[in-house]
Amino acid sequence: MSKGKKIILWIMGVIVFLTAVIVGVGVKVYFDVSRSAQRTYEAVERNQNETPESAKRKEELDLKKQDPFSILLLGIDTGDLGRTDRGRSDTMMVVTVNPKQKKTTIVSIARDTYVPIVGYEKDDKINHAYAFGGAAMSMDTVQSYLDIPIDHYVAVNMAGLKQLVEAVGGITIGNNMEFTQDGHTFKHGLISLTGESALAYSRMRYEDPRGDYGRQERQRNIVIGVVKKILTMDGITKYQDVLKTMEENLKTDLSFDSMKTITLNYRNSFETVITDQLRGEGFMQNNISYQRVSEEELKRVQNELDNQLGL
Fold first, then answer.
1. Is the pTM of this model over 0.85?
2. Out of 203-207, 250-254, 290-294, which region has the weakest mean confidence (pLDDT)?
3. Which of 43, 69, 116, 139 is least surrounded by CB atoms within 10 angstroms?
4. How many Å apart are CA 280 and CA 98, to the nearest integer?
């Protein structure tokens, strides 16, 4: 399941990968993971009016008590086609993890969704929040829009997609339509992807009758494909390549201690993974294309995530 020019591949992969490493592998690997986690850590300064506690949660999140939590996954176009600026989060997914329900939900948000940008005092495409104010503004904006706590973030730049798929030795996924993109032809059914072909697979939009929503589904397929490959023994043996890719392309406000707690206390949360999509209708404004989500659709997704977070 993949989405467009930005692919957030990681949080699920990081968590499951760390589970395999911490539970069953040696001391050297443990310290390698610890070092990489420290290098990817980047805290954010949230809007004081948009902290997680201001969005329905009555008590502070406690991972040691196995509280359900949420993560905003951001795929950033920095690194794509030589870009070096901050970039935009053209891929956005909200992941909710609930150990009591033994379930994880991944909800994709279209990059052109028209929303109020928290801290910028105007309505705009939701992916512009990252360009305006980085991960913090993206978290605040998604939190305000969905009316749920956004507890953490994981941001991966576009260059990381190709490198990560290559680091795990390629992935195999199911493809529901045949198409050609960037010189690669993708047949219907099970297909094998290298880093280069995964990047092309994630970009296709115009041949798909579902447009950007079809692209987002392909992005989610890539995320799941990477996770499944990491879980294999072949994937675990490539852990140094995976860690190097993570260090170069990923930033998160999850500390190593938090990652350890999640891997040890939330393993059953990944028994069932549900994917969903916040859907809107296209409209034009000042010659710019946007997506407007109806109140009914927004409420549907809000209720789904509320239930997942036990709110």
1. no
2. 203-207
3. 43
4. 27
